[in-house]
Structure formats: structure tokens, C-alpha cells
Amino acid sequence: MRVYGVTGWKNAGKTGLMERLVADITGRGFTVSTIKHAHHNVDVDHPGTDSYRHRVAGASEVVLASSGRVALIRELRGADEPRLQDLLARMSPVDLVLIEGYKREPHPKVEAFRSEAGNPLIAPGNDSIRAIASDIPMDSDRPVFDLNDTSGIADFILEEVGLQG
After folding, report:
1. DSSP 8-class letter at 13
2. Could you report the per-residue pLDDT of 106-152, keeping only the tens digit for each?
3. What are the residues whose beta carbons fall under 8 Å from the beta carbon of 120, sequence distance 6 or more?
4. Distance (Å, whole) CA 72 – CA 64
5. CA nearest to 75, candidates 102, 54, 97, 48
6. CA 122, CA 67: separation in Å to the nearest integer?
7. Which of 13, 51, 135, 145 has a CB 3.0–4.6 Å from the CB of 112, allowing a cystine?
8. Where are the alpha helices (DSSP H) in the chain?
9. Where are the beta strands (DSSP E) in 19-165?
10. Measured between alpha carbons, how far is residue 118 from residues 4, 130, 133 in Å?
11. Residue of 43, 76, 37 whose CA lies nearest to 60
12. What is the pLDDT along the chain (165 residues), one digit of tens a residue?
């Protein structure tokens, strides 16, 4: 499966870039799925719903199914967080999986960078970062795109994964 990441520090513009890339790339006719890594507990289920009650009662997995969507919620209950490769293996085939976060994983990535966030670039110490999407001009040994140049960044990613040439 073709994978490409968007990484960066908090408030660097990762999620906005991901959203724009998904819209751009699917608009070109490709199928895209995403994985988002969070450093905090995530809850897509809320107190009072039947599925929440199932989880709280002790269910290891709860599947929510309707005519419009299916969601699988797995409680880790102290088990290790799944590895990225294991998550990818469970996904349905698509043309491209875009991954947000996972800075230390070896898949190729674009680093989102916003100067106002005040964080250093990750790219100098991370060879898996193939390009930088920045809100300011900068010199780098990798391609640098304007953070809002969604089409240019999408072109770069699609060429990198062999979906256009």
C-alpha cells in the first residue's frame, strides 16, 4: 500500500494540510484513507450512547454500523498501542494512505512548519522527511513548498509514490 505522511510539531498546520491534501487528491480521482496519531486519549464515543455503555461494561471491541458508515472502537485496556504497520495491514485497499503524525516512523513525509509556533524544524535530524511545507521562505536540502500550495504538495507526494509522473 502506498503511504505518505504529514508531520510536524503541534500548531504547525498538519491537520489543515491533511484536509486539503485529501480533498485535492480525491478530486483527482484517487482513493485516499488516513491515519491520525494522537498523543492523548481519544474518545469518538460519548457517555449515554449505547456503544459507550457497551465499552464501559467491558467489551473489547464495539462496532457501530449504519447505512452510511461503520466504526470499530477497540479498547486497549492496558495493552500496547498498535504499531503503525499493524494498523495499515487492517485497512481496506486504496490508492494512498495519508498519515498524520508518527514523526519517528520511517515512511516518507512532508513536514508542516509554521514560524509562529516557535518550534525548530524536525527535518534536519530526520531523513524520512522528504520536503517541507512552510509559511516562510527557507533554505533547505529538501524541496520547500508554501504551506498553502496544496496542489504543488499533492503533485510532489503523488510523484513520490508513483501515482503520477
Report:
1. S
2. 999 999 999 999 999 999 999 999 999 999 999 999 999 999 999 99
3. none
4. 6
5. 54
6. 42
7. 13
8. 14-27, 50-57, 84-90, 150-160
9. 32-36, 61-65, 70-74, 96-100, 109-113, 129-134, 144-146
10. 25, 21, 15
11. 76
12. 899 999 999 999 999 999 999 999 999 999 999 999 987 666 777 888 888 899 889 899 898 888 998 888 888 888 999 999 999 999 999 999 999 999 999 999 999 999 999 999 999 999 999 999 999 999 999 999 999 999 999 999 999 999 985
Q: Grid coordinates 496519531 are at which residue? A: 37
User: Which top CATH class is 3-42+80-160?
Assistant: alpha beta
How many other β-carbons are positioned within 10 Å of the β-carbon of residue 148? 14
- What are the sequence ranges of the domains in the chain? 3-42+80-160
Q: How many other CB atoms are there within 10 angstroms of residue 125's CB atom?
A: 8
The grid coordinates listed for 137 are 521562505
61-65/70-74 β-pairing:
antiparallel
Predicted pLDDT of residue 165? 56
Beta bridge pairs of residue 71: 64
- The verdict on pTM exceeding 0.85 is yes
Give the Cα separation of 165 and 160 in Å (integer).
9
Residue whose C-alpha cell is 521562505: 137
Given the C-alpha cell 492523548, which residue does it identify? 40
